[in-house]
Design brief:
alpha/beta; 181 residues; 56% helix; 5-stranded parallel sheet; Rossmann fold
Length: 181
Amino acid sequence: MKKIIGIVGMPGSGKTEALHLFKSHGFPVFNMGDVVTRIEPAKRGIRELNEFVEQQIRTDLRRQYGKDAIAMLTSQEVEKIDADVVVVAGIHSFPEIAYFKKKFGSDFVLIALEADGETRFKRLDSRKVRPLTREEFEHREINDRYDIPEIVQQADYTVENEGTLREFQKALEQLISVIHP
């Protein structure tokens, strides 16, 4: 059975950087957000995205398939990857966690990434791809605040991301050596 290393964190906590690092170590990666920002918009013919369009897509999918819809669609994509271990980022809810735990059992490991709100906003405001305005950030905070902080508390491992990118990478590299020696 495939082992899934799940990554959870609030927007701007370092999920994308974590995926880059895992990928550089040879792990295939999948960002659950790709279901909402790439796969579904392509199916629907949507060419321009913003936070509000993405939220509507998430809502539509959850209405159609249930609260674990994005985890289910992610799992379908992950199953296509020819590898024993796949890293998945962007888990947002308890139903998604429950889906992965039911499907992968003890082969599902969860890593939480933590950073304070202002640190995360500065990162999101300055990113080159899909930067967020303060208004979009605050909207996202409200939507993600329901489950993510509690999910972070239930993670198997936690990595603080308040320092430099290199410090974050070193912490993740140490964790990789523990999870996948």
